[in-house]
Each structure stands twice: as structure tokens, then as C-alpha cells.
């Protein structure tokens, strides 16, 4: 049974009196994850995959176990399919740098992407004389699958798409996009920064070749994240960096890379953070992602509908609550979104995000909003009361 009061006890930071609704930027961390990280420093702090002494052995075991927890969490067939990254951005860049693009080939992405899943492709395409085609959605973030069918062709090497927009909160049918891409032999990379924390993830079901995600948005430590690489692409994908920890053998004039995932994790990794991310996945598994989704849907519905009912407030993103998660962008009259966010913090103890949310193409092409929006985003520890508090505060602000 999902019990938000019980969950809140695991997050001592919530006792600081702040209503934290900035989860799309970064989530809070439960005590279990903090303790797991501290255990590393207090009990067995050592490097991994290098030493024979007991601390190093234990650190390596915990580090490997974390890979398994993360792999289980996203439905990956094995721990070798999950390379630990610093964040989503690093995972996407790894994929981009690994592509052996040929002049004239095409990358397809969408207008609602975060810059990390957008400029990465612009840069690599320019470097190789390739093009990037951008599929547009409507203002609610809904796509016509026919548009993907028109744009994706046999010259398409890769389709990069997010599961959830970090501005509109809309859910994108990645599985359908992947099917279209695969018909033409193109690879598919999913930006899971917002999807993985909030929605059950099954990489085998969605059929994507790569999935990048951030630990810090899913109860894990900052500096942790992952990149899922499918079985087929595991040995075709080039590491972003190589060096210590990534090799099976080195001679005076050659080297052989280690098996995945170590070949992708050059140098001493963020050991405590990776172990913490494994614990975050275990935490979410214990709560159950169906329960997380259900709670999220309840909060998202009230948040979007409540904001929509306030005179002078414009809400962006889907009206249909089933089409969105608890990320709701809005503006209050012609107030600058940063001023609204500052007032929510200073006068009402509510933390939200404001600005363009690293999604300038969306802001410019769909809405013409140079200052961006205010964005409130929920997670499993938020309550209906907190949503009501935000709605009351926004109503106050809108009345001046
Ligand atoms: C949809 C999306 N993609 C990518 C990112 C980048 O995540 P990170 O900064 O953890 O690399 C974010 C961060 O907000 C995001 O929301």
C-alpha cells in the first residue's frame, strides 16, 4: 500500500518547511541512499576493480551489485548492458561520439527535446556533413506518428527522442517511434531523464538501442546516471574515454578493451554515487513503480487542473491527465516567470523552477516565450496538500 506519510519519513530534508516542487530539476534523496553512500566512506572506502585487499573487494562487490540493481530497474537483460555515467548528458554524448556517421546521413530528433538531446546531435551532424531533422509536436507535445514516418528514411542513422518532456510533462510513445526507426535500420536513443524516475521502464519492451538517464532525478546522488546499451550495440559502441579500468590487455603497441560495462567507465568512477544509485533503484522497487506512477498521476491531475482554473494563469502541456506526468509549466499573466518563482520561494516557501528549462527550441518554436515558464514538478513524497498550497500561492500572486 502506497503511504506518502511513511515515505516522507525517509526524507529528513522535508522537515525544513519547504514545499519542494522542483523534482524535474533534481529529486531529494532518502536516508537509505545517504546511509548507503556513507557506509562506503566509513566502512570500506577503496578503489574498485583494482585491489585484492578486503576494502577493495567489498567496494568492487557493492559497485557491481549497483549495476545489477540499475539493470533490473530498467528491465535490462544484464548488468553488462548498463554503463554508469555522470548523468543523462554524458550518456547522450557517448552515443553521439560513437556514431561513425557518413556524409549525407540523417539524424532525427524532436522540437520538445532538452538541449542535451538536441545540440549534441547538431554538433555531431555538422562535424560529419550530416543533417538533423526535427519532428514537431502540437503545443501539448503530441506527435503525429505520420510525421516520423515521413522524416525517417533509409539514410537515417539515429532517432533521438525523450520519453517525457521536461517542460510540458507529456509522455511520448517512444515504442512506436522506435518501431518506425527500426523499419529503416536506424538506431534509437531514448532520453530517459524524466521518464525513468516516474514511469515503469522496460528497455526490452520499448525496443530502444540506448537509454540515458540521471540518478539525481530518481532519488540517487548527484554525479550518478546510466546508459543502457542493447546487446546488439554493446560491442559496436565506442567508449567516450579510455584509460585505467577499461582494458583487458595492453602491449607496447596495442590494447584490448575490457568487457562491457567496464570499457565505458574510464578512470576511477564515482564509486559512492554509483552505489547510492543502486540503492535508489532498490528504494523505488520497494515502493513499486506502479504505485509511484499512480501517485504521480493523482498529483499531476490536480496540479494541472487546479492551475488551469486560476484566472490569468496559462498552463502548457496536455489537458488529458493520462497524457502527462507531474511536470506542469505555467505562466501568471504577464509576470516574469523568475519573479513568480522568487515570490513562491520568499513568500510561500515553495521551490519551483523558472526559465527556459534548457529547451529553447520548444520555447521558441511552439510558444514564443523568451522568458520561459514557471515549472512545478512532483515526486512520490509530495502530498495533495502541497499541491493545494502551490495553487493557493499562485492564485494569490495572480491577484497581485
Ligand atoms: C529531458 C531531459 N533530458 C536531459 C536532461 C539532462 O540531465 P542531466 O543534467 O542530469 O544530464 C534533463 C535535465 O533536466 C532533462 O530534463
In the predicted model, the low-confidence regions spanning at least 5 consecutive residues are none
Strand count, sense and barrel status of the largest sheet are: 7 strands, mixed
Mean pLDDT: 97
Structural class: alpha/beta
Identify the strand order in the major beta sheet: 2-8-7-6-5-3-4
Spell out the helices and strands N to C. HEHHEHEHEHEHEHHEEEEHHEEHEEHEH
| Ligands bound, unique | pyridoxal-5'-phosphate
Radius of gyration: 21 Å
Instruction: Work out the helicity level.
Output: 40-55%
Shape: globular
Extended strand count? 15
Output the keywords.
400 residues; alpha/beta; Aspartate Aminotransferase, domain 1; Aspartate Aminotransferase, domain 2; 14 helices; 40% helix; globular; binds pyridoxal-5'-phosphate
What would you say this structure looks like, in words?
The structure is a single chain. This protein has 400 residues and is an alpha/beta fold. It has 2 domains: 139 residues, Aspartate Aminotransferase, domain 1 (Alpha-Beta Complex); 254 residues, Aspartate Aminotransferase, domain 2 (3-Layer(aba) Sandwich). It has 14 helices and 15 strands. The strands form 4 sheets. Strands 2-8-7-6-5-3-4 form a 7-stranded mixed β-sheet, with helices on both faces. A 4-stranded antiparallel β-sheet has the order 11-12-15-14, with helices on one face. A two-stranded parallel sheet has the order 1-13. It is globular. The site of pyridoxal-5'-phosphate (PLP) has 12 residues, from helix 4. The site of pyridoxal-5'-phosphate has 12 residues, from helix 4.
Amino acid at each position: 500500500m502506497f503511504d506518502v506519510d511513511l515515505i516522507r519519513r525517509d526524507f529528513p530534508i522535508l522537515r525544513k518547511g519547504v514545499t519542494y516542487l522542483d523534482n524535474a530539476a533534481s529529486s531529494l534523496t532518502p536516508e537509505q541512499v545517504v546511509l548507503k553512500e556513507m557506509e562506503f566512506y566509513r566502512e570500506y572506502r577503496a578503489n574498485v576493480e583494482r585491489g585484492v585487499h578486503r576494502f577493495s573487494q567489498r567496494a568492487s562487490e557493492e559497485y557491481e551489485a549497483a549495476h545489477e540493481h540499475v539493470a533490473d530497474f530498467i528491465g535490462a537483460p544484464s548488468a553488462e548492458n548498463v554503463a554508469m555515467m555522470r548523468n543523462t548528458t554524458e550518456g547522450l554524448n557517448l552515443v553521439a561520439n560513437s556514431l561513425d556517421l557518413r556524409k549525407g546521413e540523417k539524424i532525427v530528433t524532436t522540437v520538445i527535446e532538452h538541449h542535451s538531446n538536441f545540440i549534441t546531435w547538431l554538433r555531431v551532424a555538422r562535424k560529419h556533413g550530416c543533417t538533423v531533422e526535427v519532428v514537431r509536436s502540437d503545443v501539448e507535445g503530441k506527435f503525429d506518428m505520420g510525421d516520423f514516418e515521413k522524416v525517417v528514411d533509409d539514410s537515417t542513422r539515429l532517432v533521438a527522442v525523450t520519453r517525457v518532456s521536461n517542460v510540458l510533462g507529456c509522455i511520448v510513445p517512444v515504442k512506436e517511434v522506435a518501431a518506425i526507426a527500426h523499419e529503416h535500420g536506424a538506431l534509437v536513443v531514448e532520453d530517459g531523464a524524466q521518464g525513468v524516475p516516474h514511469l515503469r521502464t522496460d528497455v526490452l519492451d520499448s525496443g530502444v538501442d540506448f537509454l540515458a538517464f540521471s540518478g539525481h532525478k530518481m532519488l540517487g546522488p548527484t554525479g550518478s546516471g546510466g546508459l543502457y546499451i542493447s546487446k546488439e550495440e554493446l560491442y559496436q559502441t565506442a567508449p567516450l574515454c579510455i584509460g585505467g579500468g577499461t582494458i583487458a590487455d595492453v602491449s607496447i603497441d596495442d590494447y584490448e578493451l575490457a568487457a562491457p560495462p567496464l570499457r565505458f567507465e574510464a578512470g576511477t568512477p564515482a564509486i559512492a554515487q554509483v552505489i547510492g544509485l543502486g540503492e535508489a533503484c532498490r528504494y523505488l522497487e520497494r515502493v513499486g513503480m506502479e504505485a509511484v506512477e499512480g501517485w504521480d498521476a493523482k498529483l499531476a491531475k490536480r496540479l494541472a487542473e487546479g492551475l488551469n482554473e486560476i484566472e490569468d494563469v496559462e498552463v502548457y502541456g496536455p489537458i488529458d491527465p493520462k497524457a502527462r506526468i507531474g511536470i506542469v509549466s505555467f505562466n501568471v499573466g504577464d509576470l516574469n516567470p523568475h519573479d513568480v518563482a522568487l515570490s513562491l520561494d520568499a513568500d510561500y516557501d515553495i521551490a519551483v523552477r523558472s526559465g527556459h528549462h534548457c529547451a529553447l527550441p520548444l520555447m521558441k518554436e511552439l510558444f514564443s516565450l523568451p522568458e520561459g515558464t514557471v515549472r512545478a514538478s512532483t515526486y512520490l513524497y509530495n502530498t495533495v496538500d502541497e499541491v493545494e498550497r502551490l495553487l493557493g500561492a499562485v492564485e494569490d500572486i495572480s491577484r497581485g
